[in-house]
Amino acid sequence: MLPDRLTGRCYCGATQLSASGPLSVAYCHCTDCRRWTGAPVTAWVGVPEVTLTPAPEPFSISEGVSRTSCPRCGSPLAASFSYLPGTMWLPMGLLDQAADLAPTLHCYAGEALPWLHISDDLPREQGSGHEVL
């Protein structure tokens, strides 16, 4: 059973987050997510809304993509994508409930690092997976 409410924080604890329950949980293998998070793959939790306290200013480098990071420690906090309207995406590692949130999909599977092998039977979308997220 998925939690109704999600909580979490950045690495240094300066920014707290609270969100309504998850809509989707997915891995993303795209180069942009790897660069932003510094991880070989990112697990994301899609939520309808999130409250960041204090509320840092989002930034955009790629058209249609807005990202928010902690101004103190730089931890990735949230992202939104124009092709996934009405959903904010939270990096799984920030969440207190991460153990309860299993991914159900791999997005941008064609961009996965060749040495990374995640053995599961989840669907693998070559693109954003926006049709199923």
Order of helices and strands: EEEHEEEEEE
Q: Biggest sheet, in brief?
A: 4 strands, mixed
CATH architecture: Beta Complex
**Helix residue percentage:** under 10%
Number of domains: 1
* Amino- and carboxy-terminal Cα gap: 18 Å
Question: Explain this structure to me?
Answer:
The chain has one helix and nine strands, in the order βββαββββββ. It is mainly β. It has one domain (5-111): Metal Binding Protein, Guanine Nucleotide Exchange Factor, Chain A (Beta Complex). The chain has a four-stranded mixed beta sheet with strand order 8-4-3-9. Strands 1-2-5 form a three-stranded antiparallel beta sheet, with no helix packed on it. β6 (65-69) and β7 form a beta hairpin. The longest helix is centred in the first third of the chain and has 7 residues, at 31-37.
Secondary-structure blueprint of this entry?
Layout: E1 5-9, E2 16-20, E3 24-28, H1 31-37, E4 42-47, E5 50-53, E6 65-69, E7 76-81, E8 88-91, E9 106-107
Parallel strand pairs: 3-9
Antiparallel strand pairs: 1-2, 2-5, 3-4, 4-8, 6-7
Describe the structure concisely for a colleague.
The protein has one helix at 31-37, and strands at 5-9, 16-20, 24-28, 42-47, 50-53, 65-69, 76-81, 88-91, 106-107. With 133 residues, the protein is mainly β.
